[in-house]
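Quarterly update from the structural biology core.
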Amino acid sequence: MHSLRLSTLAVAALLSGLAAPSHAADWPAKPVTVIVPFGAGGNTDMMARLGAQHLAAKLGQSFVIENRPSAGGALATGQVAAAAPDGYTLLFAASSMIVLTPQLQKLTFDPMKQLVPITNMGTGTQMIAIKRELPVKTLPEFIAYAKANPGKLNYTVAGTQNISHLAPALLFARAGIDIVLVPQKSEPAAIADLMAGQVDLYFGNSSSLLPHINSDRVRLIAVGTPTRLSVAPDIPSVSETLPGFEFSSWNGFLAPAGTPDSIVTTLRDEVTAFAKSPEISERLSKLGIIPGGMTKEQNEAAFKKDYESFLAAAKAAGIEPPK
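Predicted structure, tokenized:
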């Protein structure tokens, strides 16, 4: 009897040990929720929906987008960080939600430790646009003109304490120029002010500024990526004037820490193949978005780079860390 009992327990233990991998192997057995910390529309939401549609078609289950906007994306990010690590709750966010928000807000969770980057659908790029009335045509000329006219030029942002605020703050600090901030509440409003000649400069999303590349009201003079964009090869990168300058935004899928490696790998492989496919790659590139599909090591390097960039930019903008 004693021997039989031990054998029964051994079998039960073996079956129990096999249960978790079997469950992961069956994933997804029900719809997957993808939480986006922005409202509908915009680059991040668009990429999330493209990725979700592809995953649903490839994996045979619905990937349902839920938009949950909040300040710095903290609400959505916290919900996913606290979710069960079973692959049924994912986050689609910009890297700023993970590495910048903790520098601006006091959080009850650590997104860098409680979330695992899967891979990106694309990297959003930023571009500098100036009003054509200015007597300059290039970034070096703009910097020289700003130095000769300290405090006389202004720039706008699409809300404060975000990329459109921090990218120019870091740029001006590196260039050693003094420009007055005139904040706006949204990107369309910021671009409208620039088009109307009410502000001198806006450093915003390439996807929003590229449609104005031939405008007689604004001039696109630089991009924040280390190299030029394929869709606009004649526009120099900021780094050609200020070596080492880089400002961009990783946009992709993340999962709660502890999610089985098999699920993370499946998602990474599917999203990578999709993002690198000719049709999607071309579609993203035309918007000034660098097609994604980063490896695990590339994801880690991107987040490390973003953390350092945002930290330096927050300091340049005079933003104090949360206490």
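Confidence is low (pLDDT under 50) at residues 1-22.
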